[in-house]
Amino acid sequence: MKISSIFYTLLLSLSTCILWSQKADQTIFSINDNPVKVSEFEYIYNKNNGKEATYTKSSLEEYLNLYIKFKLKVQAAREMKLDTIPSLIKELEGYRQQLTTNYLNDKEVVDKLAREVYERQKKDILISHILISLGQGASPADTLKAYSKAKEAYSALKASKNFEMTAKKYSEDKNTVGNGGYLGWFTAMLPDGFYGLETIIYSLNNGEFSEPVRTKLGYQIIQVMDSRPSRRKMEAAHILIRKGLKSKPDELARMRADSIYKAIIGGASFEELARTYSQDLTTNLTGGNIGYFGINQFEAAFEDAAFSIPKDGDVCKPVETSIGWHIIKRIKKEEELPYERAKRKIQADITRDSRFKQAQGSLIEKIKSEAGYKENPTALDALAAKMDSTFFTYKWIAPENLPNDVVATLAKTSLGTKDLIDYIKANPRQRVQLSEDKNIRNTLRSLLSEFVSQKCLQYEENRLEEKYPDFKALMREYREGILLFEATKNVVWDRASEDTSGLKLYYEKNKENYRWDERAVIQTITIGGLLCPENTPRISMW
Known about the structure:
Layout (H helix, E strand, L loop, with lengths): L1 E2 L2 H10 L11 E5 L2 E4 H12 L7 H23 L6 H15 L6 H14 L2 E11 L6 H21 L2 H8 L11 E5 L8 H7 L11 E3 L2 E12 L4 E9 L8 H15 L4 H8 L11 E5 L6 H8 L11 E2 L3 E10 L5 H13 L4 H15 L3 E2 L1 H9 L20 E5 L2 E4 H10 L1 H6 L6 H22 L2 H4 L1 H30 L1 H11 L9 E4 L2 E2 L2 E2 L6 E4 L1
Antiparallel strand pairs: 1-2, 2-3, 4-5, 4-7, 6-7, 8-9, 8-11, 10-11, 12-13, 13-14, 15-18, 16-17
Helix pairs in contact: 3-19, 4-19, 5-12, 5-13, 6-7, 13-17, 14-17
């Protein structure tokens, strides 16, 4: 192991605040010809010292010594061939896959989507809808039929300006048709697959309605009935006094709820009264706590009462719902966070939503541009000519002896007909779902696009260490941390647990080093200022 003289020069320059980046490509020390660069040492020094990273000569020397010892242990782990153990390789690959997700998207697009959600979550929207049902795999004929009916409903709505009446006549949503299409209050994000609908909802003013919109449910016409500042979420507790008959007035239940409420106002413990009297058997033992909830989770009367409680710890008067009378206590109200604090959770939610495809799609287009992506339409046409009508069914079998023409190139990689056919065979559902218009070339074009997108992401994933120094540094930390842990486990912990004789010998040899000095604990009980004879001081020696 050699320490470069560069390091000592760096000590002087860094202690006077000269930037590391000027020498970022130079080697500080090497172990078995494995160099440790200035940039690596700077990263780990800053990360582990945080605000205490003073860049003084003594601080840098101290941390250098620690890092050299760490690297020597890692090298010892490699010499033990621990980096070839399949379980450790698999564990490292798992870390890499988790980390990769954050890089395989266009960060600017993700931030734009996150800011969009953040702004939308400031407002709740009250909506109604008219639904013309249509399955996602519907035939062109069924699609046209549904669209025609949706346009008819839209025309009737424009003429009458009466959304409730039009919904009752045209809507195929059995759950809402009876109440004129009323859906209730919503806020961003809507469930996965409804991003387009969410965008339309937040673009409408109160009283306005949309044209028919294709969603995974069919065609929907949306009306925004009202809007308000977002209620967000609240943690609450309640005491429930059930009615004798559901949805019927019950004066006795109301009187019992009133008496409990008066006791709480008089100073009685809400939690104790909930344990004693609440008839909600799922929450009474925990003092009535129902956890956090948001809009559209409970009946409107319950929700309105809960969110009208002015501050944490306050209790509302008994409120009636279909099941009984509730006394609600506000425990904690979720408030709006600054964007920088809220964005991490929002971005995580976006990665699980279909809108994330926007970020990946933008990245894929950038990768294509960087990699000089080209397509060969002639090869795709020739492949389409070899297909028959079974291509749109699960009965399709790939033709044999197809020429392996190049259908596309990505960087220095040629993607041939055989590669595309292998992808199509491995994804039969995708092939059937993409064949709505029963046009073989269009379907092949869509499948090629999906195939190339996959290849672009693989291409990008293989370049992450090269493109992103922070990714490279994190992967190095994971890799070396796993190796050091496994080496310590094998050489120290496992060996120590097996060597009982050695442990006993070590204990006998060193036990005097760990004894406390002689100490005493004295307890004195005094009554009326006098020392009680029968309770003389008790002394325990340690």
